[in-house]
Amino acid sequence: QAALEITARYCRSEMEQYGRCVAASPASWQRDCHRLRLSMSRCAAAHPIVQQIRRDCAEPFAAFEQCLKENQASVTNCSDHVNAFLLCADRV
């Protein structure tokens, strides 16, 4: 949650644009929103706390992203993966 809060605080515009794109393209968001995801990631990566979370929680985040790729039609199947990542981020 810490990473999401920091991203929301410092990269609100990028995060909102990405969220709108994902919501508007439920079947093809992975392809259609890639550029916006990169923009949000670049913005967030500039913050030191986010950098530490990315280092310390790279494994659960990679598992979450892989789950999203495998479940593009029903991303709710990835709730366990996102929870694991958020638990890791809270410990940073």
From TrEMBL:
Q: Which Pfam families match?
A: CX9C
Signal peptide stretch: none
Q: Which GO terms describe its cellular component?
A: mitochondrial intermembrane space
Q: Which domain of life is it from?
A: Eukaryota
Instruction: Please list the residue ranges annotated as the IMS import disulfide relay-system CHCH-CHCH-like Cx9C domain.
Output: 4-48
- Give the GO biological process terms: cellular respiration
PANTHER family referenced in this protein's UniProt entry, alphabetically: COILED-COIL-HELIX-COILED-COIL-HELIX DOMAIN-CONTAINING PROTEIN 5
| The name this protein goes by in its record | Coiled-coil-helix-coiled-coil-helix domain-containing protein 5
